[in-house]
Amino acid sequence: MTGHPAAPGHAAGQLLGVLLPAAALLAVGALYVLGAALARHHNPAAGWSRPRTGSFLCGLGLLGLALLPPVASFAHEDFRGHMLQHLLIGMYAPLALVLGAPVTLLLRTLPVRHARRLSRALRSRPVHVCAHPVTALLLSTGSLVALYFTPLYGATAGHGPWHHVLHAHFLLSGALFAWSVAGPDPGPARPGVPARLVVLGVAIAAHATVAQMMYAGLHLRVRAPLEQIRGGAELMYYGGDIAELLLAAALVATWRPARRTPTVLLATDGRRAVRK
Fold first, then answer.
1. What's the whole-number mean pLDDT along residues 201-227?
2. pTM value > 0.85
């Protein structure tokens, strides 16, 4: 008898947990598509890249896959589901969203006054520090150590507000890392491609080390059956490698080597000569 009155409220809460993220994702997708249409209307010559639109919508789709049943339900019941959700929210969706260049689209569609303010904010010192690949690496990959090897995982697991905070951290830190390494959007001056590849290599090694320690159970503070922990560790190891290889491919694909400016010399007879 005591369980029946709470059942309708629990069902309503579950329904709300599905409808709210679905509505939010649909709204963001609609705003992006509207912005792309406005960008093409304002500047037909420049237009807006359809692959960018497809990438952003794919990122929203991956977020929906992670936040809605059956993956969300699986994540609450099984550590392997949690790890799958972590990979989708923290690595795959951020990369797809970042490659959609949402900041560039926003700069093209905002009024000039607001676009200038946003551009100044992107060049500010705080953004410069946060957008550095090393900072982004510490916030994304470094936080895994705090999550799985301290009591933090137990405190955030479940349906409480800290669980949603954890999801937001995964998404934002993953997007920041993808942007700092290979994002097409404007921002503070980033290190050269070789330096970013080194940071990405460190991220791959750190991810693999965390996964191996998890598989072996070394200093792990996650309470779950052994087969779930090992399955989650394997997902982190192989799924993380694939995501980071995709990020490396994005970095190489968006890399534009600096073009050397020809040096103009004055010959002894007064004619100009160009040395490349």
1. 95
2. yes
